[in-house]
Amino acid sequence: MSSALTARPRGRQPDQLRDLSIVYEGLDRVDGSARFGFGSTKSLSSVSGPIEVRPTLENPSQATLDVQIRPLAAIAGTDSKALATILKTVFASSLFLSHHPRTLVQIVGQALCGTESGSGLGSAGRGWNATLTASLVNATTVAFLSAGSVPMRGVVCAVAIGRLQADPSSSPILILDPEEAELPRLDGSGCFAFTFSAVLPGSPLSAENVPRCALSWTNYTTAGPFDVQEFKRACDFAKKGAMEVWLKMKESVCWLEKSAPPPRIRAESKVEDDETPGEMEVDDDKVEI
After folding, report:
1. Above 50 in pLDDT, residue 281?
2. Where is the composition biased (Acidic residues) (predicted)?
3. What are phi and psi of 54, to 5 degrees?
């Protein structure tokens, strides 16, 4: 395998994440909100609930979970609606919605990047790449931790895996957290979401004091035939990255617990410019992003 193929921006190793950033936004009229980023790949999410629900959506046995995903620009298209359905499935299994019947729990996600790849821009067929999807899953988890109003079975952490292969005769190389500049070189990729919980079977904590985890969802696909062994390697690779995300979330919660509730609480591994270019207009009654 040539070094040109395996070389990564900023000299990252195949199993190295970019700098993780978590910002508790403190948005008005929501119960919890947070921004999560892998380097410059960032998403914003807010959680409202349990709140009053329309009679037509009322569920007598559990809370109704509503997910809305918004691209960086334009209106939500097919890709955003499909991603909203995925997030609803992932988080429905990690929340105790039966504790709040006849109410509504609303998630609103917003892409904060996508100018290079088209991901998050709402363009038909260009969608949300795996890393941007992972950042949105993590931002939603941190928003739930910030809200503290909906009990959780476990903490959902997600990372993206990319696949590089020079030719069919060589073994593919897996890379963690592919960024926009690497996307054209990939012949496979996917987001892996894991649920971390001490109630899962086995030892409560690993050697790194991280709870056990189980794969909740993935959309990993490749250009070639499906290989079970390769998928297992990708899953193990992603699990290590998800553990780093969990540790970062734990660190950010310590900041949240030790501080008074100011408008914004930052917990970042590297100081970055968090300004988002342009103004975003939102007509939602529950969330201001």
Report:
1. no
2. 271-289
3. -65, 145
Q: Report which of 26, 62, 56 is spatially closest to residue 44, judged by C-alpha positions.
A: 26
Question: How many of the other CB atoms lie within 10 Å of CB of 115?
Answer: 14
Q: Give pLDDT tens digits for 10-49.
A: 889 999 999 999 999 889 999 999 999 999 999 999 999 9
E strand segments, 75-220: 104-111, 155-164, 173-176, 188-196, 213-218
Q: 4 or 27: which carries more pLDDT confidence?
A: 27
What's the sign of the alpha-carbon dihedral 172, 178, 182, 185?
Answer: positive
264 HSE (CA, 13 A, CB side): 9
Spatial separation of the C-alpha atoms in residues 105 and 58, rounded to whole Å: 11
Partnered with residue 102 across adjacent β-strands are none
Q: What are 175's two structure tokens? A: 């890379």
Gap between the Cα atoms of 177 and 241, Å rounded: 8
Q: Say if strands 104-111 and 64-70 run parallel, antiparallel, or are unpaired.
A: parallel
Architecture of domain 12-265: 2-Layer Sandwich (3.30)
Residues 6+ apart with CB under 8 A from 196: 154, 155, 156, 157, 210, 211, 212, 213, 242, 246
Q: Within 10 A of 256 (CB to CB), how many other CB atoms are there?
A: 18
